[in-house]
Amino acid sequence: MQHCGRKDPVVLNVFFLKSPAIGPCVLRVADIKKGGRGYWVVRVTLLQKLKGDVEEEKVHAIVTMGAREDHVSFAVPRNTYVPPPPSLAMMRPAPEVSFKDKSILRAECAFDRDQVHVLHALRWGDGRPIDVKSLPCFADVLAVPPWMPRDAIFAKRLTLQLEVQFFDVPREGLDHVLTRILVADSKEGHGGGDGWLYDDKGNLLASAR
To answer: How far is it, in rounded angstroms, from Cα 69 to Cα 61?
Structure first.
């Protein structure tokens, strides 16, 4: 976003090639398409050093940014089904969504067995503001539903690919983001899903899959 100036993200596609380590990394940003009256497409690669000066690409992302300088926008009636946002009152702490540093993320969850949905309420543990950059992070959080096989609960779960479509920017002072994840069937050890992210008033912020 710093590279593109004051532009809002439209779509983010991320490919996780190898599991990144917690530590220093290098981000390389390159323009694929740069325009002032349409959209701006950027390639971002995350690299980490192995031994010596050898760098290995761990994450590859393509980001589409809105690029209109006149800030003209329009809206059309939504013709696709969007499920209702979950209620914060139904959430309980999610111990399996945890980090060694408890200040990173505070997560609560609930489960809708009828619709095979996993529900979350997410906020940063250290009190940092929730902004548009927070949404892809929150979209990649999934508490393991109780109807999954027990082996899956303890298995190492790595994201292979993530797509986020942005619809709105979180307002200033937003306390938490609500997410609803439709857990799809797994195949050959890989599972998929569709997700929706809302603010605390029920406004749709983004969708993910």
So the answer is: 24
